[in-house]
Amino acid sequence: VKDKRKGSIKIFVILLIITSLVFFIAYLSSLNSKVTNKLEGALWTLPAKLYSRPLELAEGSNINTKNLSKELDLLSYVETREIRNPGEYRLNDKTLEIFLKGFQDQNSGIYRVNIEKKRIKGIKRVDGISLDLIRLEPMAIGGLYPAHMQDRLLLDRSRIPQELIQMILLVEDKSFFDHKG
């Protein structure tokens, strides 16, 4: 009777271990699936945009009104006779009147840029206050869109031109390799 009982206990313990192992493996598989889905989704779902530098119109700087008009068109500004809304402008050889859309480094508002002999002679806000410069918002020059418009490619660092890495570091973070964080 004792041998039968010992055999039954051994079988029960072995079945308990096997059952526990099956549940543990199923749990690990479920956990792995959740973590994988979370990482794949969260890391790649937000679109990222790459912007140019903001165009600065500064007193004393040279200006080409044709190029400026093209730049304003690319920024979706609309040339109009009467300026009422952000994103509208009026331009001739002597004056640019513009209702800036505004962004982080530049307040929205109406500005008047006086041009003389292809040089900016003065910049004033609509309230008459003179300024040294105004900035047009940066142009979106690229975008990285997940899922629906995927244009992200993961590359080995060896496939990225060293010049591109240096250019991005120069523009974005000059102290990237030197800071403690």
From TrEMBL:
<protein>
    <recommendedName>
        <fullName>Bifunctional transglycosylase second domain-containing protein</fullName>
    </recommendedName>
</protein>
<dbReference type="InterPro" id="IPR028166">
    <property type="entry name" value="UB2H"/>
</dbReference>
<keyword id="KW-1133">Transmembrane helix</keyword>
<dbReference type="InterPro" id="IPR036950">
    <property type="entry name" value="PBP_transglycosylase"/>
</dbReference>
<feature type="transmembrane region" description="Helical">
    <location>
        <begin position="12"/>
        <end position="29"/>
    </location>
</feature>
<keyword id="KW-0812">Transmembrane</keyword>
<keyword id="KW-0472">Membrane</keyword>
<dbReference type="Pfam" id="PF14814">
    <property type="entry name" value="UB2H"/>
</dbReference>
<feature type="domain" description="Bifunctional transglycosylase second">
    <location>
        <begin position="57"/>
        <end position="136"/>
    </location>
</feature>
